[in-house]
Write a structure and sequence with these properties.
4 strands, 7 helices, 20% strand, binds adenosine-3',5'-cyclic-monophosphate, alpha+beta, 4-stranded antiparallel beta sheet
Length: 139
């Protein structure tokens, strides 16, 4: 089915001018970028976004990293977009990411791993709604 997923191009990638490189891999995978904006995430936004990880030992580091520079938030649309984008991203740990994936090409470490993608339809809807209003998404 046609789905939407939420994507973030993280500060390690924007800092190295990799927005276009990531977008090329997204589009070549058959996903359409139906919304996109470059923002500086506030601490409150990052804490809300990653609330599910608030008890993890790396939570502070994660919030600090995600607010350390610009990010590009996106909505991607396509057939099975959630699983498809996770396949294009590759494993969270770039050392385990397959050839041809975004993280294999660009990620620096498990924390500075260049991109985020939603893990399920329910989280995709919540994440999209945190950053986009309906009229900003043009399918
Ligand atoms: P993301 O998919 O954005 O969602 C949770 C993030 O936590 C994940 O990407 C990683 O970047 C980050 N993360 C997971 N494990 C670790 C870790 N051990 N140390 C630092 N960051 C981590």
């Amino acid at each position: 089915a046609i789905q939407r997923t939420f994507s973030i191009i993280k500060p390690d990638a924007t800092e190295r001018n990799l927005t276009g490189g990531v977008n090329k891999m997204i589009e070549e995978a058959g996903l359409r970028i139906v919304a996109q904006k470059r923002i500086r995430m506030t601490q409150a936004q990052a804490e809300t976004f990653y609330a599910v990880h608030s008890e993890r030992p790396f939570f502070g580091e994660l919030v600090e990293f995600m607010t350390s520079g610009p990010v590009v938030v996106q909505v991607l649309e396509g057939e099975d977009a959630i699983v498809k984008y996770r396949d294009v991203m590759g494993a969270t740990n770039p050392a385990e990411a397959a050839e041809g994936t975004i993280r294999k090409a660009y990620a620096k470490s498990i924390g500075e791993n260049s991109v985020h993608g939603s893990d399920a339809p329910e989280t995709a809807a919540i994440e999209i709604a945190q950053f986009f209003s309906g009229n900003e998404i043009v399918g």
